[in-house]
User: Which sequence fits this backbone?
């Protein structure tokens, strides 16, 4: 998955969380962590 495609998917997931009436900060946090995790190819070590 390219980073541009990852960005489009993250935006769609962000809108979905907002549609579910999750707080915007939480939705952005989850999309940010998820995007970082997928951008690092599933390696959680850089998050530490």
Assistant:
């Amino acid at each position: 998955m390219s980073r541009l495609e990852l960005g489009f998917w993250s935006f769609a997931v962000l809108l979905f969380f907002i549609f579910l009436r999750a707080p915007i900060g939480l939705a952005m946090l989850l999309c940010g962590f998820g995007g970082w995790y997928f951008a690092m190819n599933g390696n959680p070590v850089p998050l530490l």
